[in-house]
Design brief:
Length: about 180
C-alpha cells in the first residue's frame, strides 16, 4: 500500500519510470476493479477486464497527469476512468446499433416504447450520477466510490475525511435519489 502511494508521489514529481512501475504494482487491484465494474454495470460492452485495464492505462498516459495524492485517490480516479470508458463503449455500440446518422424508421405500431435494454440502463445510471453531482458533489462521489469503485464505507470515510456514519447516510440518500431519477 505504501509502495503505491510512493509511486504516485514519484510520478507527480515527474519521474517517467514511476508511471509504469505504478501500473505494474497496481495491476492486480486494477484488474479486480475492472472485473467488478464489468460485472455490475458494464456487461453489455465488448470490453473484457484486461481490455478495460489496458484502456485505462492508455487514458492515463494520454492525460499526462495523475490527479491523485495516495493509493485510495489513485483507485478512485481509476474507477472514474473505467466508468468513462464503459459509458463511451456503450454509447458507441448504441450509435452503431441504431444506425449512426441514419434516421430510424418504425415499421410496426405495436412496439413497446420506453423499454430500456442493458446498454440504455448503463447510460441512464451515468446521466443520473451526473445530475446528482450537480446537486450534491459529495453524494455523487460517495455513490461513485461505492458503486463503481467497490470501496467499503471505511475506505470512503478515510478518503473523504468524514465519518463512516456520514458515509452511510450519504450512500442511503444517494441511492434513493438515483433510484427516483432512474424511474
Amino acid at each position: 500500500m505504501n509502495q503505491l502511494t510512493g509511486l504516485v508521489g514519484r510520478m507527480q514529481a515527474g519521474d517517467k519510470g514511476a508511471r509504469d512501475a505504478l501500473f505494474a504494482a497496481a495491476y492486480t487491484e486494477l484488474h479486480r476493479l475492472a472485473r467488478a465494474r464489468l460485472r455490475d454495470g458494464g456487461r453489455n460492452t465488448v470490453l473484457d477486464t484486461t481490455g478495460l485495464v489496458h484502456e485505462s492505462y492508455l487514458r492515463f498516459v494520454h492525460a499526462g497527469e495523475l490527479r491523485a495524492e495516495d493509493r485510495r485517490a489513485f483507485f478512485a480516479y481509476a474507477s472514474q476512468v473505467m466508468r468513462s470508458i464503459i459509458v463511451n463503449s456503450v454509447r458507441e455500440r448504441i450509435a452503431q446499433k441504431r444506425g449512426g446518422d441514419w434516421r430510424p424508421l418504425t415499421l410496426s405500431t405495436n412496439l413497446a416504447a420506453g423499454v430500456a435494454d442493458g446498454e440504455d440502463a448503463a447510460l441512464k445510471v451515468h446521466e443520473a450520477l451526473e445530475d446528482l453531482e450537480k446537486a450534491d458533489p459529495r453524494l455523487a462521489q460517495v455513490a461513485q466510490m461505492r458503486y463503481f469503485g467497490g470501496y467499503s464505507e471505511q475506505e470512503i470515510a478515510e478518503t473523504l475525511d468524514i465519518t463512516e456514519r456520514t458515509v452511510q447516510r450519504d450512500w442511503e440518500k444517494a441511492r434513493l435519489i438515483l433510484a427516483a431519477a432512474l424511474r
